[in-house]
Amino acid sequence: MSAIEGIARTNFAYLDEQTKRMIRRAILKAIAIPGYQVPFASREMPMPYGWGTGGVQVTAAIIGPEDRLKVIDQGADDTTNAVSIRAFFEKVANVAVTTHTRDATIIQTRHRIPEAPLSEGQVLVYQVPIPEPLRFLEPRETETRMMHALEEYGLMHVKLYEDIARNGHIATTYAYPVQVAGRYVMDPSPIPKFDNPKMDRSPALQLFGAGREKRIYAVPPFTEVKSLDFEDHPFTIQRFDKPCALCGSTHSYLDEVVLDDRGGRMFVCSDTDFCEERREAGHVGPLGVPA
Amino acid sequence: MTAEQPLLKVSNLSRFYGGRIGCLDVSFDLWPGEVLAIVGESGSGKTTLLNCVSSRLQAQAGRVEYRMRDGRLRALSDMGEAERRFLMRTDWGFVHQNPADGLRMTVSAGANVGERLMAVGARHYGHIRETAVDWLQRVEINTDRVDDPPRAFSGGMRQRLQIARNLVTAPRLVFMDEPTGGLDVSVQARLLDLLRGLVSDLGLAVILVTHDLAVARLLSHRMMVMKDGRVIEAGLTDRVLDDPREPYTQLLVSSILQV
Amino acid sequence: MYVAVKGGETAIAEAHRLLADRRRGPRDLPALSLAQIAGQLSLAVDRVMAEASLYDPILAALAVKQARGDMIEAIFLLRAYRTTLPRLAISQPLETAAMQIERRVSATYKDLPGGQLLGPTFDYTHRLLDPDLAGEEAEPETPARRAVSGEKVMRVSDILDGEGLVEGDGSFGPDHVAGDITREPLDFPMPRDTRLQVLARGDEGFLLALAYSTQRGYGRTHPFVGEIRIGLADVEIELPELGFSVPLGRIRITECQMVNQFKGSAKEPPQFTRGYGLVFGQSERKAMAMSLVDRALRADEFGEDIVAPAQDQEFVLSHADNVQATGFVEHLKLPHYVDFQAELDLVRRMRAEYEAKRAGQAGDEDAITSEAAQ
Question: What is the pTM of this model?
Answer without folding.
Answer: 0.85
